[in-house]
Amino acid sequence: MYEEMMRFLRFSTGGKISVGIFFILIVFTLNAEGTATLRNVSLERIDGPGNNSVVYIRSQAEVDCLHYVISTVGPTSPTLLLLKSTSNTSRVHISWDKLLHSNSSVVEGAVHLVDENGKPLPKSPKTSFYIFDELLEYEDLQNSSDITDPKNKNLTRIRLNELSWGINVTGFTAVLQGTDNNSSKFTNTSRVELRFTPFSTKGRRSVLPRMAHNELSADVEFIVDGIAASRPSSRFAVILVVANPGNSSFLPSVKVTSDSVVEQVSKRIIDDEYAPTIFTFGQIFSKTKQNSATNNFWQWRTVCYVMPHHTNDDATDVKSTTLTGNQTYVAPALLDNKLLQGYFGFSNLQLIEARATIAGFGKEDDGYYNATAYISWTSLVGFGTPPPESFSITVISILIAGVGIPIVIILIGSVYLLKRRFCDESRIRRSQYEPIE
Amino acid sequence: MDKDEKEPLLTNGGNATVIVVRETKRFTCGSIKDPTSFSHRMIVLTLMCFLSFGSYFCYDTPAALHNQIRQDLDINEVAFMQLYAWYSWPNVVLCFFGGFLLDRVFGIRLGSIIFSVFVLIGQLIYALGATVEKLWLMDVGRFIFGIGGESLAVAQNTYAVLWFKEKDLNLVFGLQLSMARIGSTVNMNLMVPVYDWVENTFSSDRTLGISLFLAAITCIFSLGCALLLAYLDRRAERMLGREKTGQEEVVKFTDVKDFPLQLWLIFLICVGYYVAVFPFIGLGKVLFEEKFGFSPTQSSAVNSIVYILSAPCSPVLGFLVDRLGYNISWVLIAVLTTLFSHGLLGFTFLNPWFAMCVMGVSYSLLACALWPMVSYVVPLHQLATAYGFMQSIQNLGLAVISQVSGLILDSSGYFMLEIFFCICVSAALIATLLLYFVDVVKSCDLNLSARKRKEKSECESVVEASQEEEVAKEELCLPDPELRRPRTAFGIRNRYYSRIGAQIPEHLLAHTSLTRTRCHTV
């Protein structure tokens, strides 16, 4: 029996040690990734004639420069253009005359990259754009919060380019506010809002959903506040149009042979430490076909909040449809989009294969949109692959302690028992008396 | 019999308890009226099992009506978990006194009736609170319900030991646990249909209250069992004359400080293990929905699988542990597998059915192996106190951990909660390892096989008999140094008897301690 137990102990000890080594490896891996490139990140509002302005975020490093351009000029729906240039002195130049020109064919070249001398640079092969194009309202008769449910009624489409947009830059956040004085759905305080916050370091925001970010990414918060719902059981959704033209050869009248793809995945993680009870990410990757390297990403935890102060109690779901090329959703977004026309050119833009996803807000029994008449959905957009979600130091140290202490007890106990047994045996050997049994 | 013969020969303090042989009424062997017959004891066992059915049924009404309670009363998770915490708080103190109350004040029979009444009244107030939609009144109800509930479980365990000491005790504990879990499972699956039925039938805004009043019927049923059981026990006591010695032994409050180290380690295992099961089940439903994408119905099902599994597993495993022994090894296996299943739930996306089934089996295994160990390390007259204390500490753990796990879930999510539960089980694992080593060092034989334990127990009882014989002779007769020899012919002869499996002669039993004797007389 004793030997059996010792054999058992040896077995379990061996198993535990390998688990321990596994955890130690994790710690080293975590430490190893602690090196980050130093980036110089700036956020500015570039004002043009009239009330027109665009938000420009520039993130400069030694070997490259990242550009985020956000615009509603046109007016168009809020559009985010991502450009990556290998020239670290590059910056985005905007020719306002061209951009605001009513003739679409003239607009081409209004937005382009220039070097430090103002000399135009070739188009970046790593380019993507994202458009928050429409707000959808539907009557969720099944209380299923499924935008694709055919039993939904009274679908209303609210084009975001019909709102009047104002841009404010406060601190390191650019705020785009859209209002509509002519619509019955908008009161004085109603608004659709977009907040862009670029990051220059690795880290995690203190506000939920607390996604990990790095120096190559920016937060995008989409807010619907106080817009009147048509029905008590109304829910809202937003159409996000995505394209990854890559280095498409925009030759006239030739169908674009893009070497890039956009794909959407749903990723599950075991660790909900930072956003309790949220285990999934929605992710859209812009990839190069050849080596399937990710050029940039758009990701979100599948959660939105129905109060300005984000808490777990005010969390509800974000359910997104798979990417679709359906022209009903995609075509209007690209039409008359001054920013994209200015960068790609009007004719080229028609050839770009854009796709759309619909992100619906809400879940069963959450009281529909009318419960709070507020939605806040946070995404992270950035270059390269999304920053990894790793275990916190608390978790790792607890795990090591939890595994380590039993091992220590097994070891000490085994050693003590062995010693004791050895002493007993030697005492018996020394003893003059034969045991009775 | 003369008066002298009826009196115990030894009156030297609490250690040497003595059976008083009384004239008892004889029945034909096997008659249902004979309290020692199989059929009679089966009836008692059935009543014993249903004694706590009501309290276990109503205990989990909050979990079963989680969404309904949260919506009807408009409360958050923390306020919801308070319903469980309020149940546990009184028991932190009361289980401890519950043992004493059962031992000394009420006696087991009156005690179980009183506690059944508390359960019923608590459930009624709780239902009333739901009817008038006052959370504080519901908390009061749960508090009173808690006063009765756990003490009733102590009474149930004490009844079990009284009627089934040593022989098949594991099996009986297993069956009791099964019935308790059947109560929980039936509740989990019945309350929502009852709620819906009430909603459709009465279409009032008092649906929750009415449903909970209906649940109180089970408490009335259990009270009936308590009354019947009290009658049968009193009858058996009168006929078998078994009570007057051990149970009324003077128990000191300070007994607690005499609890052996092993018992404290058993307490620690109990706390560490149970807090990783009950609060987890209380909060588990959302985990299965959010992390594993289960529908609410599926989540309820997988959440109650632990209870469902323990119903058939407990008696089977109880029987096995009874026959095989090796209690600490079983506890170790149960703790390790539970750690494993919490690990699976926390660190993987593996279908939770597997992890929860593993947890269900190991939960039953632990209960069957852990609880009977208490009776091996404390004498019978401290048993009710020890069990009471064990439940008291368990309740302290549950009350604190319920709230802590609610807070952890709110602030850090399910992953942290799982890690926290892993730590709790890990603490139980540490205690189990320590218990094993302490047991080996002190040679307490908790981990013996059942056969060896029986041999040893018989052997010891005989040795003790012989030693007491000596003591008696020393005191009553001459202090002859010759009689102090470790092995008297008397002792060796008796050892021989026990070795070949012969019955130890009746007259020797009067000289052994009550604890050791019970196993031969029952």
Automatic annotation (TrEMBL), chain A:
<keyword id="KW-1133">Transmembrane helix</keyword>
<keyword id="KW-0472">Membrane</keyword>
<protein>
    <recommendedName>
        <fullName>Glycosylated lysosomal membrane protein</fullName>
    </recommendedName>
</protein>
<dbReference type="Pfam" id="PF15065">
    <property type="entry name" value="NCU-G1"/>
</dbReference>
<keyword id="KW-0458">Lysosome</keyword>
<keyword id="KW-0812">Transmembrane</keyword>
<feature type="transmembrane region" description="Helical">
    <location>
        <begin position="395"/>
        <end position="418"/>
    </location>
</feature>
<keyword id="KW-0325">Glycoprotein</keyword>
<keyword id="KW-0732">Signal</keyword>
<dbReference type="InterPro" id="IPR029382">
    <property type="entry name" value="NCU-G1"/>
</dbReference>
<comment type="subunit">
    <text>Interacts (via lumenal domain) with lysosomal protein MFSD1; the interaction starts while both proteins are still in the endoplasmic reticulum and is required for stabilization of MFSD1 in lysosomes but has no direct effect on its targeting to lysosomes or transporter activity.</text>
</comment>
<comment type="function">
    <text>Required to protect lysosomal transporter MFSD1 from lysosomal proteolysis and for MFSD1 lysosomal localization.</text>
</comment>
<comment type="similarity">
    <text>Belongs to the GLMP family.</text>
</comment>
Automatic annotation (TrEMBL), chain B:
<dbReference type="InterPro" id="IPR020846">
    <property type="entry name" value="MFS_dom"/>
</dbReference>
<keyword id="KW-0813">Transport</keyword>
<keyword id="KW-0472">Membrane</keyword>
<comment type="similarity">
    <text>Belongs to the major facilitator superfamily.</text>
</comment>
<comment type="function">
    <text>Lysosomal dipeptide uniporter that selectively exports lysine, arginine or histidine-containing dipeptides with a net positive charge from the lysosome lumen into the cytosol. Could play a role in a specific type of protein O-glycosylation indirectly regulating macrophages migration and tissue invasion. Also essential for liver homeostasis.</text>
</comment>
<feature type="transmembrane region" description="Helical">
    <location>
        <begin position="386"/>
        <end position="409"/>
    </location>
</feature>
<feature type="transmembrane region" description="Helical">
    <location>
        <begin position="328"/>
        <end position="347"/>
    </location>
</feature>
<feature type="transmembrane region" description="Helical">
    <location>
        <begin position="261"/>
        <end position="281"/>
    </location>
</feature>
<feature type="transmembrane region" description="Helical">
    <location>
        <begin position="113"/>
        <end position="131"/>
    </location>
</feature>
<dbReference type="InterPro" id="IPR011701">
    <property type="entry name" value="MFS"/>
</dbReference>
<keyword id="KW-0458">Lysosome</keyword>
<protein>
    <recommendedName>
        <fullName>Lysosomal dipeptide transporter MFSD1</fullName>
    </recommendedName>
</protein>
<feature type="transmembrane region" description="Helical">
    <location>
        <begin position="353"/>
        <end position="374"/>
    </location>
</feature>
<dbReference type="InterPro" id="IPR036259">
    <property type="entry name" value="MFS_trans_sf"/>
</dbReference>
<feature type="transmembrane region" description="Helical">
    <location>
        <begin position="42"/>
        <end position="59"/>
    </location>
</feature>
<feature type="transmembrane region" description="Helical">
    <location>
        <begin position="143"/>
        <end position="164"/>
    </location>
</feature>
<comment type="subunit">
    <text>Homodimer. Interacts with lysosomal protein GLMP (via lumenal domain); the interaction starts while both proteins are still in the endoplasmic reticulum and is required for stabilization of MFSD1 in lysosomes but has no direct effect on its targeting to lysosomes or transporter activity.</text>
</comment>
<feature type="transmembrane region" description="Helical">
    <location>
        <begin position="415"/>
        <end position="438"/>
    </location>
</feature>
<feature type="transmembrane region" description="Helical">
    <location>
        <begin position="79"/>
        <end position="101"/>
    </location>
</feature>
<dbReference type="Pfam" id="PF07690">
    <property type="entry name" value="MFS_1"/>
</dbReference>
<feature type="transmembrane region" description="Helical">
    <location>
        <begin position="301"/>
        <end position="321"/>
    </location>
</feature>
<dbReference type="InterPro" id="IPR052187">
    <property type="entry name" value="MFSD1"/>
</dbReference>
